[in-house]
Automatic annotation (TrEMBL):
This is Cell survival pathways protein. It comes from Physocladia obscura. SUPFAM superfamilies: AttH-like (SSF159245). GO terms for biological process: response to oxidative stress. InterPro entries: Ceramide-binding_SVF1, Svf1-like_C, Svf1-like_N. It is found in: Cytoplasm. The keyword Zinc does not apply.
């Protein structure tokens, strides 16, 4: 769930076939540092553009799982990292027949137009417009029907949330850096997508987030999992600090369109890894074991989720610095040795236990692992 700018590489990974091994016992998993949840309430104010945090990135990201098998990621990032503010927009479209489109654009700041209420924005080929009646969005990313285009209405099935004041600190004080995050864990999506001259009516599901990262170079790595199906959703949003520092993690469980639990005692375990020596040099996971633990919002029942994933469908391996503007690239390289992002899209079955009730959530999961520092 990184909000760094990016461009893709198509190098093959993994080099060796992956054979599933036994996942660790849940009792042996070292989970994230738990957060005491005093409030989950989020308002439209939490989804307003701030544009006033120095040395920070501010990102709106939309993730769409569509019924025709297409997965869409659309992101707009405002960056105050570097000598002057900049904007970048990314559209990634992955189709069930393995065709795909990925583009990152760097428009002029003069074309970046935020609405008076700071809830909507227009910038060249991308715009998203807030609907106060539904608290949802109309998302448009138009590169032309002969290339790729998305025009969808996103309607939330439940209220958005943030954990307490939304701020997840990297250290003991704000000057150490932080993430300020608010989430819509579940949208219904209707509209059209276009790809290489063909326009298709689509329905689907998705999620979105508004995230500010102050000193985004501080974490060593990120893990993100977004599982969606017709009724349910499970999300993991997690970062690790360098040199064995703390892990902070937020998870959500959506059942029949309603957010029944937000969890903070979680972990994404890299069960198997292979070194991607020809591209990034990082030890990249090829099998994940995701664990979420928490309580339901209504009755306080125990919630436990397990997801075992062998990652076979790599969408992209991304060199974050590859297409950054020169001055911003130089600034980032001062702090980050080699940022890379890996993305997968997998068929997943999650085992969920709520109180005495157990069930599975089957669906498509978008998985992202980002590496910022070689330790």
């Amino acid at each position: 769930m990184s909000s760094w700018f990016s461009s893709a590489s198509a190098l093959p990974f993994p080099a060796e076939p992956v054979v599933r091994v036994a996942d660790p016992a849940t009792s042996s998993v070292s989970t994230s540092t738990p957060l005491l949840i005093n409030s989950l309430a989020a308002s439209p104010d939490d989804f307003k553009w701030r544009l006033n945090v120095p040395s920070a990135t501010e990102a709106f990201t939309f993730y769409l799982t569509l019924s025709n098998g297409t997965y869409v990621l659309a992101q707009m990032v405002y960056s105050a990292v570097g000598l002057s503010p900049s904007v970048q927009m990314t559209l990634r479209m992955y189709n069930s027949d393995k065709t795909k489109y990925a583009s990152t654009l760097s428009p002029s700041m003069s074309n970046f137009k935020v609405s008076d209420d700071k809830l909507s924005v227009t910038c060249d080929q991308m715009q998203f417009t807030y609907n106060p009646a539904t608290r949802g969005y109309t998302l448009v990313f138009d590169l032309g029907v002969n290339v790729a285009a998305v025009n969808v209405l996103l309607t939330p099935t439940d209220a958005p949330f943030k954990v307490n004041d939304g701020r997840l600190p990297f250290g003991a004080k704000d000057s150490d850096g932080f993430v300020d995050a608010a989430f819509y864990p579940r949208h219904e999506a209707t509209g059209t997508i276009s790809f290489e001259g063909k326009t298709t009516n689509v329905v689907g599901w998705g999620s979105s987030s508004h995230v500010i990262q102050y000193k985004p170079q501080v974490p060593a790595k990120w893990n993100f999992v977004n599982l969606q199906n017709e009724k349910d959703a499970i999300m993991l949003y997690e970062f690790d600090l360098p040199k064995g520092g703390k892990c902070t993690s937020i998870g959500t469980v959506v059942r029949n369109g309603r957010t029944i639990a937000v969890t903070t005692t979680n972990r994404s375990v890299h069960v198997q890894k292979q070194n991607d020596s020809k591209f990034s040099g990082y030890d990249v996971p090829t099998q994940l074991f995701v664990v979420l633990n928490g309580k339901t919002q209504d009755l306080g029942e125990d919630v436990h989720v397990e997801i075992s994933i062998v990652q076979k469908n790599l969408l992209d391996a991304i060199d974050v610095l590859a297409q950054l503007p020169y001055l911003l690239k130089v600034f980032i390289q001062t702090f980050i040795t080699a940022p890379y992002v890996y993305q997968w899209y997998e068929d997943v079955s999650a085992k969920v236990t709520i109180g005495k009730d157990s069930f599975t959530v089957d669906g498509k999961a978008f998985i992202e692992c980002a590496f910022l520092l070689k330790e």
